[in-house]
Amino acid sequence: MYHHLKKLMYTVNVGTPDPRFGNMLLEQFGGANGELAAAMQYSIQGLNCDDPDRKDLLMDIGTEELSHLEVVGTLARMHLKPMKSDRDAAHADPLIAIAGGGGVSLFNSMGNAWTADYLKITGELDVDLRSNIAAEARAKIVYERLIDFCEDPGTIDALQFLMTREITHMKAFTAALESMGKPALSIGRIPPTPELVNQYFNDSTGTGDRGEPDSRGPWNQGGEWKIVDAPAFQELESEKTGTRAANGHSRSEAQMNKSTSAKAEK
Amino acid sequence: MYHHLKKLMYTVNVGTPDPRFGNMLLEQFGGANGELAAAMQYSIQGLNCDDPDRKDLLMDIGTEELSHLEVVGTLARMHLKPMKSDRDAAHADPLIAIAGGGGVSLFNSMGNAWTADYLKITGELDVDLRSNIAAEARAKIVYERLIDFCEDPGTIDALQFLMTREITHMKAFTAALESMGKPALSIGRIPPTPELVNQYFNDSTGTGDRGEPDSRGPWNQGGEWKIVDAPAFQELESEKTGTRAANGHSRSEAQMNKSTSAKAEK
Amino acid sequence: MYHHLKKLMYTVNVGTPDPRFGNMLLEQFGGANGELAAAMQYSIQGLNCDDPDRKDLLMDIGTEELSHLEVVGTLARMHLKPMKSDRDAAHADPLIAIAGGGGVSLFNSMGNAWTADYLKITGELDVDLRSNIAAEARAKIVYERLIDFCEDPGTIDALQFLMTREITHMKAFTAALESMGKPALSIGRIPPTPELVNQYFNDSTGTGDRGEPDSRGPWNQGGEWKIVDAPAFQELESEKTGTRAANGHSRSEAQMNKSTSAKAEK
Amino acid sequence: MYHHLKKLMYTVNVGTPDPRFGNMLLEQFGGANGELAAAMQYSIQGLNCDDPDRKDLLMDIGTEELSHLEVVGTLARMHLKPMKSDRDAAHADPLIAIAGGGGVSLFNSMGNAWTADYLKITGELDVDLRSNIAAEARAKIVYERLIDFCEDPGTIDALQFLMTREITHMKAFTAALESMGKPALSIGRIPPTPELVNQYFNDSTGTGDRGEPDSRGPWNQGGEWKIVDAPAFQELESEKTGTRAANGHSRSEAQMNKSTSAKAEK
Amino acid sequence: MYHHLKKLMYTVNVGTPDPRFGNMLLEQFGGANGELAAAMQYSIQGLNCDDPDRKDLLMDIGTEELSHLEVVGTLARMHLKPMKSDRDAAHADPLIAIAGGGGVSLFNSMGNAWTADYLKITGELDVDLRSNIAAEARAKIVYERLIDFCEDPGTIDALQFLMTREITHMKAFTAALESMGKPALSIGRIPPTPELVNQYFNDSTGTGDRGEPDSRGPWNQGGEWKIVDAPAFQELESEKTGTRAANGHSRSEAQMNKSTSAKAEK
Amino acid sequence: MYHHLKKLMYTVNVGTPDPRFGNMLLEQFGGANGELAAAMQYSIQGLNCDDPDRKDLLMDIGTEELSHLEVVGTLARMHLKPMKSDRDAAHADPLIAIAGGGGVSLFNSMGNAWTADYLKITGELDVDLRSNIAAEARAKIVYERLIDFCEDPGTIDALQFLMTREITHMKAFTAALESMGKPALSIGRIPPTPELVNQYFNDSTGTGDRGEPDSRGPWNQGGEWKIVDAPAFQELESEKTGTRAANGHSRSEAQMNKSTSAKAEK
After folding, report:
1. Closest Cβ–Cβ partner in F3, F85, F111 for A233
2. Most exposed: A35, C222, E79, F138, by fewest CB within 10 Å?
């Protein structure tokens, strides 16, 4: 059950309304990484969650995002209001001007209606927490860009508050994930195929514009990594040179698939 | 520049086509966490990326996902083909049957057309890598559920291959992110407000159905965490009991906002 | 600012989960006339509203709808949960089964993601109240149909509660509109063209399948109504018989347009 | 069966084309409250309607809206045509310029493709008429805003004609609804729960920015109204003070639910 | 200006309603290749068209498609009506059942709302006619598939009528295009680069599953065609073998780009 | 299986970045007729195709379009990059600026996310080839318009390359269709109704603004064409003058339907 208090979570002071900026601000109101997306993603994950502790976490933050939605909406409303009568202002967002009379609605900066396609909800708690960590990182960078484009000190204050809270949430979700003890290899129940999981397919090759060689880093060398070089290219050469094995498999194919023979029984 | 080799990355053998399962499989073809989403998300992040090493990583995996798209599409095509003429089969997905003649198209299991709204691309490399880690975790769990609903051994083999590769990618993206040295607090350039960032707002309270107290865990206690309890509720009580401070701020508001006074200069 | 209480607004008891019914129930969760649509439409209208009294009304009801969303979501979750492992259940909604693991998300009964295109928000208070009255009427009839298809007594109880509340809201919005004293002719500032506004264009004619004549009712006869019969047809006949007036206007056109000559100055 | 006459319902004269205004005008061509939405909503309601008289009304007005669509489209085409070759004009709507060559298409002012998600069609006649009354009110206010932003007298003439017709339709739909004798309480077949329907939940409280008390008006006091004050807040206090009743129900919950015991048998 | 006659263009007789088939039939009502798409595509192309003769053609056929929309909608309505009260019927399309009360709306067979994204309108007449020829071909095949899945003779009669008309339209559009004398090479004003236009890039190679060689046909050999074999593969080999020319261009690149040197001045 | 070569299919040189033009260019990246649409349409048609030769054609061109997508994306990225920090540039596309940090994503020039609703895939090869011919014609004209609005010579070079290739593809698809020997009348298996197929319904009549008569051309006269004049109008007159035949059919209806009596058996 929800209750609404007629007071913003952060008091909003706007000096001179800036409709162009108000239009940009809609990214955090009705945009893909905005506050409604955050509120809905966490609250609905919470609704699906069977772990009472992390469910509480999801509802705490989901509810805070609703309060953020109200702060952002109030800010945007203040910046967009001149659109009702000012022609130049209206050109910044004719949808808000003509259909909304200068009021906000759940659109992003290009007038796209908010859609639940923005949400990432799987019903698998550790997976959902990973989605939330990424979502908060995106929200942080979007607030930062808005601050970069903002010239009104009062608005910047509010954005700084909101941006900070996203980092708070990111820390909380990270701690909640870590406390579950579910690294990549233990997601779900079915283990990945043992050797295959360590093969890195080098599917993009060439020297690039500046003659640089294919990159190597901790993401494809060291530890258990084993590089499979240009599998399609190897395959093509196999066909040309007739080096396909008797079983019809080529070098690269054999390399890629052999480890699947030990596939875990379902 | 791309080249296509007329050979699947994983050879596909389907015993008895199962149109209902073929319909489910479309989640990984034209669905929100499917292979096109993966291919596009990584390849376009790569296109925007200024770090040549991690750009190569993004293109390697983005290209592999195109090959996965082809494998999944071929599997789905085999399972869906009977829809062209079999009435019962057609009921499983009338869009594929009537509009597609039993052929696949970029829809999910409920016939929704694929949309780029599924993608998470910010142009900030460490943020994008976090989105990719989460995306791979989601893809893993979706493949696992498909395996759970699948009865055809050949199809299970292919799904196990594809599922394994998602974990491979997740490991690679994780290593790439870690090698950047960009934890939550260092995303972007603007630091969060110091004290505020450690406050956990307990916005969802009550004893729940089973009388359990508010949860505590590493996500809101220990370390630097400081809990702000039920701020809206405190505010309401302040109003009722007249305990608003002379400056018009109530207890909870003061608590939440004071730390913003030291807000970093932009 | 929002607060969430860990208690449903209406206690939910589900006997035997019915996944097919759970799928239908999603219409009121993520559907066009569902609870999120209601919560967002009223709350955002409230955010745009300059009339403090009716703004409070909009926020009261907008917040109640959030609590309804939680009740419906909890009900749906209970009915859909078997989809995670039961193949037959999964066929009722493969998107929920495969992508959601049996958890709810913001989709309707056909798997369409919720979109803000469902909302009607104009920033003109009396117009918005009319949209809300219509929205509540639609929600009422959708709950009634769900009750008709529901076999679980506990679920019916909850639906009856929710359905009743929609009528409560409809009454409140109607009273709020009536108290504004803004009938059709006084919407906005620009008055309609005097005579033209009373002309009823009979644009669909013929005797129909059962030979019935064109209908007459209080919507086109009596009071100030004046019928313009089949204007396009009259025009065609004018052309054929050469009865166009010297000014090039035909009978019907003259009839339709003459009253615009007295058009109100802007 | 439809026939098209090569003559506009209202003759259109445009002085100087204004591409920025043409872009705004698209709201009434391919926008959420535009003429296609009106034409489709009424015509399809008509197609579903079993009441021959009101079916005729729906087809009359649905057909008139098709003629309006043609008028608006012709106006927009005239204003947008310079986009084909004029760079500055093209910036007002690059989609129309590049993809459309200066021709119109079913987009709104922000380039969103028209979608049937805009429509409100329930197959319950009195409910549909309420949706239509609201739709006409929205269309009226949108035309008024377009007139406010328009500088071309010929265009204003046509918009005044179209705006007037929306009020005509609103009057007709209102008369048709009233003649059905179906007030809020008699929508559908299942009556709302008697006492519960008169309870107004005061879910948004506090003194607001200007210290104003919670609002009271005919929408929550007088007649049968009974206010339930801040139910979630009461519940929270109950939990704290231990005033839960023996049956586990708190004050507010008892208040809200008791009247459902007399719920009408289905 | 439009007029509606209360008589269907083709009289509809339905024996036993078949809700599953009614659901399929929605593909031609609110689906991607359905009658609304046809009506809107041609009518709006007509609105943009400056050639009075072909504009008339577009309006003739656009208007006929509106009449088809009415026929299909009436058929679908008859087949879907049992959904209002029959649970099994309702499962075939819960959106129609719950939200529509058994009435049609602008959805396809999977409940997707019709969108103008289905339309192909460029404002270039000969290009638009090509889009229309393709659209009619698609509509023909969709009607054929519906006939294949239909068991009701009266419905088949109506579908045969509608299917035939699509071929009529296809013939008319083809004749209209041919009479313009605008083959591929003369689309628009800017000619393609002379030699480059005749190069066929063989970007998909390999022997396939059945060892078949790369295909040759009139689409890549004979006449002016010149094949460029596996350009990316050649490029890779160039890099490996160091056969890049002094100017840094490899064999395949030189082959592809040289003909652009004579590029027509804009 | 795909391979990616780190080299663009056409080397891109951009002089001065032009963010407004970069925004327009997105039409060919994430727009309705852009390169992703082409790549996906052809590749997925190829995946469904049972004719090995034309399947190879579809994969060749589908793969080339992926390389085009990369070229267009690289061009757009260069033009849009200043949006990250330049306020004026950001106004050209706030979505790219704020959500994308100046990087590209799969949006069109108005910020609409790419959707598979743009694709035309039927699984009937000759029908698909017709859709492809039309798609290439549209892509050609869009590139031409982009060239018209472009001021950077290096960008124009790349666009000329890409535009030329679309004509190449159009020629290849046309040749592939012609080699199938499937004219309009032989699409699918069910023949159209013999006489009915030659009737042209003149559904849009009148003298127009300039008094021109109804148009005649090879699309409605000559050969087998037979004109049915204004059927709805004739019907209306029949009703008025009572000239309905004894069987209840009017003149025009008899004319339209009689030829269906010989309808081909299914």
Report:
1. F3
2. C222
